[in-house]
Design a protein that fits this description.
Layout: H1 7-12, E1 20-23, E2 27-31, E3 41-45, H2 57-77, E4 82-86, E5 100-105, H3 124-141
Length: about 140
């Protein structure tokens, strides 16, 4: 079900553009437009579920298989030493649609605790370059 008022439903339906890096039957992954670091991705179920508790058991596996794939791909694509994987349920959930953040991390990258200093991509070209690097890493991981 697509909710006309939900930004992520509108992105999943193609009504609102996003920089998509991965899509399958159940999920859509796109670059966060205000990333913590370049390569910060959001994974959303294509159907509208507000929180993890709302997600049907049958989709828990497919959604988190995508999260696992993207955490590996983001680390590989951006030569990250690790990743930060997070989800909010209602509190601090900027869009009330279940979404998982996958953020590339490096030691001493300045991210501390839950202080999330948002940035922007320098330009459209840098965003597209990051997208292509992640897509390439996903392709390699799926071979």
């Amino acid at each position: 079900m697509v909710l006309n008022t939900c930004l992520f439903c509108r992105i999943a339906s193609g009504d609102v553009p996003a920089t998509v890096v991965y899509e399958n039957e159940f999920t859509l992954t796109f670059l966060d437009h205000r990333p913590l670091f370049p390569g910060h991705c959001l994974i959303v179920p294509k159907e509208h579920y507000e929180t993890l508790a709302d997600l049907p058991k049958s989709l828990v596996g497919p959604v988190f298989e995508t999260v696992q794939l993207l955490s590996r791909a983001v680390e590989s694509a951006l030569a990250a030493e690790g990743s930060f994987v997070a989800m909010n349920n209602r509190v601090s959930q900027s869009v009330p649609h279940l979404h998982v953040h996958v953020v590339p991390r490096k030691k001493k990258d300045g991210l501390k605790g839950f202080f999330w200093p948002r940035t922007k991509y320098a330009n459209e070209e840098s965003m597209v370059e990051i997208k292509q690097r992640i897509i390439s890493a996903i392709t390699k991981l799926q071979q």
